[in-house]
Amino acid sequence: MADRKEPEKGGVELGSPNAASSTGTMSTRRLRSEDYNDYSSTDVTPEGSPPGGMNGFAHPESYQRFGETNGTTWYQTLIHLLKGNVGTGLLGLPLAVKNAGILLGPLSLLVMGIVAVHCMSILVKCAHHFCRRFQKQFVDYGGAVMYGLESTPVSWLRTHAIWGRRVVGLFLIITQLGFCCVYFVFLADNLRQVVSAANGTTNDCSPNRTVILTSTMDSRLYMLSLLPFVVLLTFIQNLRVLSIFSMLANMAMFVSLVVIYQYIVRDIPDPRDLPLAAAWKTYPLFFGTAIFAFEGIGVVLPLENKMKNPRQFPVILYVGMTIVTILYISLGVLGYLRFGADIQASITLNLPNCWLYQAVKLLFSFGIFFTYAVQFYVPAEIIIPPLVARVSERWGWVINLLLRVALVSVTCALAVLIPRLDIVISLVASVSSSALALIFPPLLEIATYYSEGMHPIVIIKDIAISVFGFLGFVVGTYEAVVELVAPTATVVNTTAVMVL
Fold first, then answer.
1. Most buried residue, 35, 38, 290, 383, by most Cβ within 10 Å?
2. What contacts 436, CB < 8 A, 6 or more positions away?
C-alpha cells in the first residue's frame, strides 16, 4: 500500500482514479497551477511542494510538510477559514432558532458548533497520520477516507476502499451543486422584494412605515431570468479571474452584515412571548439549516496544507471556529428576537424597504452571484473533464461549454421546483452536509486507529456522533420533503400590503 502512486504535488482526485485520462490530469494540474485564494466548502488542491520532494519530512513524528516562503500566514489562513464557513447559511439562522426555540436554539447551535469543530480536528488528525505513515505531501478528504478503509481489519472494506474516495467526491458534488441551488433561490427572493418595493422605496427607514408592494413576477421567473447571466459567469474558468470577483463579493457581504447587525440590535421587543423550545416537528428543519451553516469541513485540509507553518493550524482552527460559532449564535438569536414569528427564510427579507436596506439586499445578492461561480468550479472540474476526454480535441471546448450550461440549468431547475429557501437549505444540508461534517469523520477515526488500539470511550463517542449525524440525515430529509409536499404554514403573498 505504501507503493500506491499519488498525484504529483498531492493533487486532489475526487473522482475515480481509474479515470486518469490526460484531460482529467490536465484539470487537476490547472487547479494546482493557478493562484486560488478563494476557499469554498470544497477540497481545493493547494499549491507548491516542499523542497527535497517526498523527503521533505524532517522526522516521521514531525508535521511540517511545507515550509515555503510563499505559504499563507496564520492571519491569512484565519481569514480564509472564516470565509469558508460564513455564507448564505448564516442569514437563515434566525429562522433556524425559531424552529428550535429561543433557548433550545442557541444551545443546540453551541453543541453543534463544538461537534463540528471536533469532527474537523478528527479529519486533520487522520490526514496527518497518513501523511506520516506513507511520507506523503498531502492527503485530501477522499484520500483520507480511502486510506482509513484500507487500514481496517475488515477485508471487504479494504478491498473496496477506493469507494471511500468516490463516495466523498459524490457528496462534495451534491453539496456544491446544492449550494448553487440555494443561491438561485436567494437571488430570486431578494431581487423580487427589491423590485416589488421599488415604487415605495424612500429614505425613511422607520420600522412602522407601511409600504404597498406592487405586483411583480413570480420568483421562479426571476430564477429563469438570472439563468443566462449565471451561465455566462460559469464560462469563466480561470481561478485568478474568479478570485478577483470573490474578493469583491467578500467585501460586499461584510458591509451588508455590519448594516444588518446595527439594525437588529435596535428596538428589540419583549422576548417573553417567544417559546423556549419549539415543536419537535420543526427541530429537524433547524438541524438542516444549522449543519448547512457549519458545513465548512472541506476547507480545513487545503488551508492547513497551504500554510507557511502548519503547526499553527490547530490553534487557528479553534480560534476561527469560535468566532464563527459566536457569529452564528448572535445573529440567530438577535434576528429571532428582533422579528419574532415574522422571521423569514433569509433575514435580508425582513429588512425595511428604504434605500439603505434595499442596497444591503443588492450588495449581498451581488456577493452571492459571484460566489456561485466559485462554488460551481469544483463539481465542474470533477464532472466535465472525463466527459470531454471522450470526444476529439476539436469538439472539446464545445462540449465543455454545453456541459456547463447543462449543469447550471439543472441547479436552476431544481431551484424552480423547490422555490422555498428554507426548505432548499434544509434538504441540501440533511442529504449531503450531515454526511461530510458529522458522519464520515468519526467513522474515519475508528477505521484509522482501531487496529492500533482505541479507548472504548473514544469508540463510543465516535459512534454517537455518527448516529446523531445519520438521524439528522434521515429525519431532516424526511421533514424537509414533508414540508415541501404539505407546507404547515402559508407563504405570505409579497404583493400585499406589508408593515415593516
1. 290
2. 141, 168, 171, 172, 175, 295, 297, 298
